[in-house]
Amino acid sequence: MSGHTHPCCKIGPSILCADLSCLADECRKMIHSGADYLHLDVMDGHFVPNLTFGHPIVKCLRPKMPDIYFDMHMMVQNPEKWVESMADAGANQYTFHIEACEDIPALCRKIQESGMRVGVGLKPGTPVETILPYSDLFDVVLIMTVEPGFGGQSFMEDMMSKVQYLRTNFPYLDIEVDGGVGPNTIDVVAEAGANMIVSGTAITGASDPSQVIALLRNSVENAIQKSQLER
User: Fold this and answer.
1) Is the pTM of this model over 0.85?
2) What is the largest CA-CA distance in the chain?
């Protein structure tokens, strides 16, 4: 798990929701609007029924934004297959799905050795306890609040019990939430203990993305401050 420092708020727009025909410009716009990182959804048409993009896109983006943190959400079967390619392309975080992996320790080692942070994602139907035998291997745990690979779903508030469990048991862990997160749902996410916030159309579709990012950040920072005062 992460080091013994309190997790800080990080907002990561999901660029799959942006205009992919001018992706580099859209990414720059998100960073200039105050985003801390970019969340890139890689779907293979097998683990999830959708198909998006792979490491060639990341490799093209990296020279245009050398200092930006790329969080790769790998919604793929055989996630071990793409570790080297993504590291070579310039990814910073490699988040695989626990449901798609057979040898979790080996994959985590491979990701670490390639120089990326290790993230693990849980679908809504996967119990949070599934990760416990491997908890010291992850830097980030991603709790999905929609079913991955399908658009237009509503935020699943009942997933917040997973976030609360993780925050209670692993106070220094980076906990990421993805799916239906925006101004209307951020408070419940923040209060549950998430500190890495993925948001799609709520940010990319906004007339003023910087205003939405500021609102999300304010909610999370207030919740972090409150929880530290209560300790």
Assistant:
1) yes
2) 47
Rounded to whole angstroms, how far apart are CA atoms 142 and 81?
A: 20
List, by residue number, the catalytic residues: 41, 178
Q: Does 174 count as an annotated binding residue?
A: no
- Please check if 170 is assigned to a binding site: no
165-194 residues labelled b (16+ CB within 10 A) or e (exposed): bbbeebbebbbbbbbbbbeebbebbbbbbb
Is 73 annotated as ligand-binding? Answer: yes
Helix segments in 3-152, DSSP class H: 23-32, 55-64, 83-89, 104-113
Sorted by where each starts, the structural domains of the chain and their CATH numbers stand as 11-230 (3.20.20.70)
User: What helix, strand, coil percent values describe the chain, rounded to 5?
Assistant: 45, 20, 35
pLDDT per residue over 137-151, tens digit each? Answer: 999 999 999 999 876
Q: How confident is the model at residue 30 (pLDDT cuts 50, 70, 90)?
A: very high
